[in-house]
Design brief:
By secondary structure, the chain is mainly alpha-helical. About 60% of the residues lie in helices and about 5% in strands. The relative contact order is 0.20.
Length: about 200
């Protein structure tokens, strides 16, 4: 659980650090005055509901029925519902596909919902922590008050840092790495062939 949260938080942290080095991220002040426990619990509940349903139920059943690869593809398509969030762009569609892929791989590699859930939680907590919007939402509170200034492709624009090409590249790299490990360790389930006897 701690590892999942740490990986999710670290993925956003690395992206923020790269933006800082590029001069696109500037810290203005630090304070938790407008960041409440209520907002944090909102993130917990939202992530738990999504992951229990999408990964713990739908992905699990689809994987057993259709095999891992087709199940992941379906989940990737399902995750594109995020494009209906505020401030989304065409790039957000690609980000949603990558999100669906990596979150699926977090489940496929462990066969448990807890790694993707705590990754999700760390990912969601890190964005307002660093002063970014969260999936287009501007009222999630902030701990670090910062200014994002640079190309939208790098800063993520109104949707937040998760829509940055840097963040998406990190996210996709995690998914590809886990797919490679899962393949080597025999965790990719093949589609069952139905034979009809005569």
């Amino acid at each position: 659980m701690f590892g999942g949260f740490l990986i999710g938080f670290a993925a956003i942290s690395v992206s923020i650090f790269i933006l800082y080095l590029l001069g696109y991220y500037q810290i203005i002040s630090i304070g938790s005055d407008n960041y409440s426990f209520k907002l944090f619990m909102t993130l917990v509940v939202a992530a738990l509901i999504e992951d229990l349903f999408t990964r713990g139920l739908v992905l699990r059943e689809l994987e057993n029925w259709l095999g891992t690869n087709l199940a992941i593809l379906i989940i990737m398509i399902i995750e594109t519902y995020h494009i209906f969030n505020p401030n989304t762009t065409w790039f957000s569609f690609f980000m949603s596909l990558c999100w669906g892929f990596t979150m699926s791989m977090l489940f496929v590699y462990t066969k448990r919902v807890w790694l993707p859930f705590f990754f999700h939680l760390g990912w969601n907590f890190a964005q307002p922590f660093y002063g970014s919007n969260l999936t287009g939402l501007e009222d999630m509170g902030k701990i670090i008050h910062a200014k994002f200034e640079g190309p939208v492709l790098f800063t993520g624009g109104g949707i937040g840092i998760e829509d940055s090409i840097i963040t998406v590249s990190i996210l996709l790299s995690i998914g590809v790495f886990l797919y490679h490990r899962s393949s080597k360790e025999g965790k990719i389930i093949k589609r069952k062939t139905i034979r009809i006897g005569v």
